[in-house]
Amino acid sequence: MNFFAYQNGRLFAEDVAVHDIAQRHGTPTYVYSRAALEHRWRDLDSAFGSHPHTICYAVKANSNLAVLNVLARLGSGFDIVSQGELHRVLQAGGDPSKVVFSGVAKSEAELRYALEKGVRSINIESLAELDRVQDVASQLGVRAAIAFRVNPDVDPQTHPYISTGLEENKFGVRMDAAFEAYQRAASLPNIEVHGIACHIGSQITKTSPFSDALERVLDLVERLADNGIALQQLDLGGGLGIDYQGETPPTAQEYVGAMLNGIKARGISLPIAIEPGRYIAGNAGILLTRVEYLKQNASKQFAIVDAGMNDLLRPSLYQAYHDIINASNHSEPSQVLDVVGPVCESADVLGYERTLAVKAGDLLAVQSAGAYGFVMANNYNTRRRPAEVMVDGNVAHLVRERETLQQLTAGESILD
Ligand code: LLP
Predict the structure, then answer these.
(1) 344 among known catalytic residues
(2) Is residue 74 included in any domain, yes or no?
(3) How many domains would you assign to the chain?
């Protein structure tokens, strides 16, 4: 299903013409579709059938309060990696008892906050962190439910910057050390061993890396059970890829099906949690940007637009491909051009050598920008971060105002 489609030659987000959004709120602006978010969440949810599960949406992918709230209303859980993300989840009406807390560097303050709010699981990434959780839980007089995030050393076959499950990555507890880690955890007074967690990377477009990781995790689950450590949740992380450029990632059915088959084959029936981010938000958002100028140099033609690498970092950071379309499906002759932003860096390119029918003043839509878009935006070149709009049927809600000039310098001061 496509929630961003042309009607009479103009691009719509659900039932709203994106031109109207640009007119009202300016550009660059992120536009999300509520229906698209819900559709993707439900796809995963229904794929589990009657198997007990929790979808813990990875807040880092898109943490706008309206996005979190739409998912919370569906009953979603959340995967967080900071105190700030938990704060957002709570503000958006999320249920802390469905929250898992991942991340390699949780501070004492963050752990205290998470334990006070009652998250479901602290996903621990090292023995040093286990000691810290024990200390903080003991100070608070509570028992902390934990999982170890294990590193299964599986190649997710994705971009190296978004691989996390290889031995060389900083993430997780090594598989061969995990058994002892669980034994130690089980002996600590303020720790309750709750589950096991694993996340191997992002934008994964095959089921095999997930299945391989699952097999290794289940080996450990069985060994632990044989030694009297019974787990209550299998958290299989996020990572399911999406179609940016014709990729054919597994469907929700195929992805969840592979996991359910994997556990059934071993006679295991543990509840499963997953931490999808991109799958839910990625194709539920676009970035609207206006063409400021067309420019020709000796060998290249450029469309210079008002969104830059500070607004959408993925193309510059990961050489990521985002399709770019003209919001008016008009019939200018097409030309091959680089779509570049205003930032003073040669890497500020949203798309190389795109074939577009375009003229100055046109509105463009950068596709698949709902995940890792706004959340990675920054103020480089003292640019204001974009506005965010969520469309719900025929209504466009401004869910984050464009930053103001005053906000840009708020909190700064000069010497007396
Ligand atoms: N769980 C954990 C522990 C993670 O580290 C991540 C992503 C996720 C879940 C969600 O993964 P997803 O389902 O979205 O693939 N900025 C990069 C992506 C970094 C992902 C980091 N971890 C990008 O723009 O491609």
Answers:
(1) yes
(2) no
(3) 2
